[in-house]
Design a protein that fits this description.
Blueprint: H1 3-26, E1 31-33, E2 39-41, H2 43-70, H3 89-99, H4 104-111, H5 115-127, H6 146-152, H7 173-180, H8 185-198, E3 202-206, E4 217-221, E5 224-231, H9 239-251, E6 256-261, H10 267-276, E7 279-281, H11 283-297
Parallel strand pairs: 5-6, 6-7
Antiparallel strand pairs: 1-2, 3-4, 4-5
Helix pairs in contact: 1-2, 3-4, 4-5, 7-11, 8-11, 9-10
């Protein structure tokens, strides 16, 4: 039983007990006068004093559970295309409930998932009514309580563990980038890291949030070490990211510096990149990486 339900049940019991006592005092036949001038409750009144509050409390708890259960779907959930849910969806729901965060990057860290699968799990939770809709950089709102989710999980139609949940974004990179456009910075970094892994990069690591020296992701391709800055903006990038990653490249002793963005670069940024040897991976580059990563998953 939830803590708040227990508190309400105690309150109902105390209130009912109080009003039962008042009612019995107003009923002459409920008590028997004693020789010392006091009165004693009859056997029936004493029983009523116990049963009435207990019955009302039990009724309240039963109704409260029925109301909560009625707020949940009674049929097994399926995804929008009629398929069963990802087998890991129960674990993902538990992570959201335990951390209080409906974040793609949180699922990636806690469950060791790739970006695409973590994003799909968040989308499924939105379909289930567990979390609210995507609102740009603002965190998603968690709509259900822990107990509601615990009641919901057994109703889910779960796919077999060996079912294929291949990413569908590869066929439509622009649709994938449309989702990317509203990401907050750290989610975008994890998305970029996952994309690099799908394109054959190894030792891919997202750096710590503060003191990263202008480098968000470290990776290797062959023998070359890459220092990568990831920028999810609503406008084209200028000189600063190029300068920062060029300095960060030296700090991490990498061979190649890269700026990845969901947008494009200004003429000034391109000039500095050409002079410093920093690679600029813009929206068109990301589209190619998404397509290539989708083929590598097949």
């Amino acid at each position: 039983m939830k803590r708040h339900r227990k508190l309400k049940a105690v309150a109902i019991f105390v209130l009912t007990l109080f009003f039962t006592i008042i009612a019995l005092l107003l009923i002459p036949s409920a008590s028997v006068p004693q020789a010392d001038g006091t009165a004693m409750l009859t056997y029936g009144a004493a029983v009523a004093l116990i049963i009435v509050p207990s019955a009302f409390t039990a009724l309240f708890v039963w109704l409260d559970k029925r109301v909560e259960k009625a707020s949940l779907p009674q049929e097994p959930f399926i995804t929008a295309n009629g398929e069963a849910h990802d087998p890991i969806i129960p674990d993902a729901i538990k992570v959201v409930m335990e951390t209080g965060q409906a974040s793609v990057s949180m699922l990636q860290r806690k469950l060791n998932l790739g970006y695409s699968q973590a994003l799909r799990l968040i989308d499924e939770m939105e379909t289930l009514g567990i979390v609210g809709p995507f609102k740009g950089s603002r965190p998603r709102q968690i709509l259900l309580t822990r107990s509601q989710c615990e009641a919901l999980i057994p109703t889910l139609k779960i796919a077999r563990a060996n079912s294929c949940f291949a990413p569908c974004e590869a066929s439509n990179p622009e649709a994938e980038l449309y989702k990317v456009d509203g990401m907050e910075g750290h989610d975008f970094e994890y998305w970029c890291a996952d994309l690099l892994k799908k394109n054959g990069f190894s030792n891919v690591e997202v750096t710590r949030g503060s003191g990263d020296q202008g480098v968000d992701v470290l990776a290797k391709f062959g023998d070359a070490k890459y220092a990568i800055q990831c920028k999810c903006y609503s406008f084209d990038l200028g000189n600063k990211p190029v300068q920062e990653v060029n300095a960060g490249k030296a700090f991490y002793r990498c061979h190649i510096g890269v700026v990845m963005t969901n947008r494009y670069f200004t003429a000034g940024a391109k000039e500095i990149a050409e002079a410093t040897g920093v690679l600029l991976w813009d929206r068109d580059t990301l589209k190619r990486l998404i397509k290539n990563g989708g083929r590598n998953d097949d």
